[in-house]
Amino acid sequence: MTAVFDPSPAPPAEILAALSLLCPEVVCDIEQNWNAPVSDYARHLWRPVARPVSGPAIAARSILREVLYQRLRVIMPPEEIGKVLEQFEHRPVIQSGLHCLLLMDRITFDALLLAWLGAVENGLSAFVGFTGTTMTMETVGREGPGWLDVGDDKVNLFGMGRHKLCRKSTCVAGPVSLNKHALEAVGNETDVSRWLGILLASQDKVFGTAADALTTLNEDLVANWDRSGMAVPVFIDDRLAASAMARHLDDDGNLLSRLLTQPARRRRLDHALQEAASGPFGRFLPNTTDYFWGIREQRVRKLVLQNGHLIEPDRPHGLSVPFERQHLRQALLDGVLLPNLFLMFLVLAILPRVRVVGGLRQIGYVALFHSILLAALDENVPEERDLAAELQVRENAWGMRVIDEKISVREQLAVLPEGALFPDLLRQYRSRTFAETTEDLKLVRENARWRKIGKAAIKAT
Question: Which domain covers residue 260, as residue numbers?
Answer without folding.
Answer: 37-432
